[in-house]
């Protein structure tokens, strides 16, 4: 019987001379799992034991890559032997405890619950069944529901403390996801109770409460002499499930005077960005707010409402009947005739600039922790993208607290901030930091200096990632292809080795001469090793390396590779397709770790006066691929639309769902197709990047 390849590869990972080599073998295990039809047959006690040994050997340095592997095998583990499944569940839960509160920890906990439910359907020994049942989490919200009923009673009595209690009960949880779940599912009776009361103070507090769940998510942040727009990552945890509660609250507060009604406008603007396919659900509230502002709103809100109305009337896919109703409405004519009625290049709510040190965003209510005497509480956050902002704030009901922020995915954890006896009872402590390196960061609040007193902590931790770059002092011109370094050897030479590198958030793919390998990050030594293996004994005049990414980052150490060009992945794929098809207008839409796009017209990627791509769905804030494609075709069509990326829908799906949103004449003259070199288009474009740059400059 042949040896289990997972066992042999994990053994190599254990025996590796260093962490990088160990991770390389762990990534090989991913490939084994993904390429094996009966992967569950590979998952046995030996595999579980070796994974546990990796956990113990590298500790926090390996938490993230190990988590991703556990997440991968959890999809297959349910078919393995019961004892093996139980062992892996226990090991995953141990890792979750170490990763407390990190997003991937929550994903792993859900995976474990799924596996435990599968185990309950199998024949288990009594002891095993008892263990499984003890590990299954059954959320009980009886206490929460009882408290909500008490708040409803206070509302019926017009007691002003009612809304304070609502804020307080939502601040008793330790994760945002749970707050959103309860907001979405358990507030209908409370909202009805407020509707029955003509109490303007309740309405004001209810609107303030709503702002915590449909929150401002774009910020213009000044860091030194630069200003960049950042977005709060927690918007990714908002689903359309919140809409019934949101709309119910909006309808409740709209019954009051204009000061409250016009304050609903920012909520609706955010909803149109967050849920572009659900706009008809909040059309009525939008119409009421716009009409009220047109009639009685102040000048500032009239300007905002005029711009918003223009956006609605120019939203592809929105009901033409409803558009006509708005456009031909007499009570909205003052908004249409306002000077602000027109297109805006500004990102929603990014007009005001905030200094990094003054940044205090919020999303959800504060989270909660009780820290016993002699104990500590920690909260982990994974930073996925370089140059993200980590922002936090906390307060104590009584006493001070010791605080640390540590990066823990390093051979030796790095203390970033350490402060003892932080006084935060009168005013909350708040801070923000630009994080240059992706990794795993751990907040620690320690009560070890206390012998008797437990401490009650309320805190917020948020991650903001770059939206796009703006330079205060000069235009930041977009270079479609940027050559970091060049060996001077032109394509007149036939003896050139082209190497393509596709850098994604958690994996870097390398390709040359039909050989592909994966590495966890953009490591120069790993790239040089790959080039050496591909070359073998053959000598090349030039090794030209192309690197593409969603948001490519220049790094000086990459110049060690001698001849390197960089480009946005979607731009590279677009130019590759244009070089093959020679279209008059080509639209490239990529969906892979997010949605983005560009337009190539007569061989050039279209940019604005500042050199920024003007047809990028990511910059436009459009997250629905079908609406995005329809928008691009309406603006730039007829055109050839090229679909690329692991998450992109099929051509047929696009034709069915986007075709109805575009005029028939444009659709008839347009072509929608998959990218050339599918499914390796991105790596192929990367490998051809120097050639495409040569061609692009010739055509300029």
TrEMBL record:
PROSITE patterns named among the record's database cross-references: GOLD
Positions of the GOLD domain: 352-463
InterPro entries in alphabetical order: GOLD_dom, GOLD_dom_sf
The protein's name in its UniProt record: GOLD domain-containing protein
Lineage: Eukaryota, Sar, Alveolata, Ciliophora, Postciliodesmatophora
Gene source species: Stentor coeruleus
């Amino acid at each position: 019987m042949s040896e289990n390849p997972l066992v042999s590869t994990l053994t190599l990972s254990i025996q590796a001379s260093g962490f990088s080599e160990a991770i390389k073998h762990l990534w090989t295990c991913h490939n084994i799992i993904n390429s094996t039809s009966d992967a569950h047959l590979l998952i046995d006690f030996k595999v579980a034991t070796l994974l546990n040994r990796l956990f113990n050997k590298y500790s926090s340095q390996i938490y993230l890559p190990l988590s991703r592997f556990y997440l991968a095998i959890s999809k297959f583990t349910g078919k393995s032997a019961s004892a093996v499944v139980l062992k892996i569940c226990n090991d995953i839960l141990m890792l979750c405890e170490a990763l407390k509160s990190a997003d991937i920890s929550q994903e792993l906990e859900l995976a474990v619950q799924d596996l435990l439910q599968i185990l309950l359907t199998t024949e288990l020994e009594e002891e095993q069944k008892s263990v499984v049942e003890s590990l299954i989490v059954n959320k009980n919200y009886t206490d929460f529901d009882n408290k909500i009923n008490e708040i409803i009673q206070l509302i019926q009595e017009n007691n002003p403390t009612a809304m304070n209690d609502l804020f307080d009960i939502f601040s008793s949880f330790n994760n945002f996801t749970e707050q959103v779940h309860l907001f979405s599912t358990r507030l209908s009776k409370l909202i009805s109770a407020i509707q029955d009361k003509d109490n303007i103070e309740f309405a004001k507090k209810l609107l303030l409460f709503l702002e915590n769940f449909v929150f401002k998510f774009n910020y213009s942040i000044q860091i030194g002499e630069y200003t960049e727009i950042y977005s709060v990552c927690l918007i990714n945890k908002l689903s359309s499930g919140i809409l019934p509660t949101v709309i119910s609250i909006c309808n409740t507060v709209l019954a009051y005077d204009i000061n409250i009604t016009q304050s609903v406008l920012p909520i609706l603007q955010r909803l149109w960005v967050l849920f572009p396919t659900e706009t008809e659900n909040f059309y009525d509230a939008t119409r009421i707010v716009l009409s009220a502002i047109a009639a009685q709103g102040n000048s500032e809100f009239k300007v905002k409402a005029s711009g918003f109305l223009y956006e609605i009337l120019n939203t592809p896919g929105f009901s033409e009947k409803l558009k006509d109703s708005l456009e031909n409405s007499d009570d909205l004519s003052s908004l249409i005739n306002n000077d602000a009625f027109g297109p805006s290049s500004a990102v929603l709510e990014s007009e005001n600039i905030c200094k990094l040190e003054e940044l205090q965003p919020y999303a959800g209510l504060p989270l909660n922790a009780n820290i016993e005497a002699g104990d500590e509480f920690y909260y982990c956050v994974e930073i996925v993208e370089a140059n993200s902002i980590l922002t936090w704030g906390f307060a104590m009901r009584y006493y001070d607290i010791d605080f640390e922020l540590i990066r823990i995915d390093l051979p030796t954890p790095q203390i970033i901030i350490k402060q003892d006896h932080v006084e935060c009872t009168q005013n909350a402590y708040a801070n923000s930091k630009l994080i240059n390196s992706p990794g795993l960061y751990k907040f620690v609040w320690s009560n070890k200096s206390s012998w008797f007193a437990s401490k009650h902590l309320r805190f917020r931790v948020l991650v903001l990632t770059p939206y796009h770059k703006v330079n205060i002092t000069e235009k930041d011109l977009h270079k479609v292809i940027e050559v970091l370094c060049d060996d001077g050897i032109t394509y007149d030479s036939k003896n050139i080795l082209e190497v393509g590198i596709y850098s994604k958030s958690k994996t870097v793919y390398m390709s040359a001469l039909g050989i592909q390998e994966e590495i966890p990050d953009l490591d120069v030594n790993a790239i040089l090793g790959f080039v050496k293996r591909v070359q073998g004994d053959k000598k090349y005049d030039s090794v030209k390396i192309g690197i593409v990414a969603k948001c490519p980052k220049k790094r000086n150490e990459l110049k060690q590779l001698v001849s390197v060009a960089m480009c946005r992945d979607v731009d590279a794929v677009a130019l590759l397709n244009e070089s093959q098809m020679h279209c008059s207008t080509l639209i490239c839409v990529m969906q892979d770790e997010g949605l983005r796009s560009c337009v190539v017209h007569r061989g050039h990627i279209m940019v604005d006066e500042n050199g920024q791509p003007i047809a990028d769905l990511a910059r436009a804030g459009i997250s629905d691929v079908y609406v995005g494609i329809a928008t691009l075709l309406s603006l730039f069509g007829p055109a050839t639309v090229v679909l690329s990326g692991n998450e992109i829908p099929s051509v047929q799906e696009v034709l069915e769902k986007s075709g109805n949103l575009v005029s028939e004449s444009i659709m008839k003259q347009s072509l929608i197709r998959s990218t050339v070199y599918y499914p390796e288009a991105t790596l192929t474009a990367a490998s051809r990047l120097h050639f495409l740059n040569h061609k692009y400059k010739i055509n300029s």
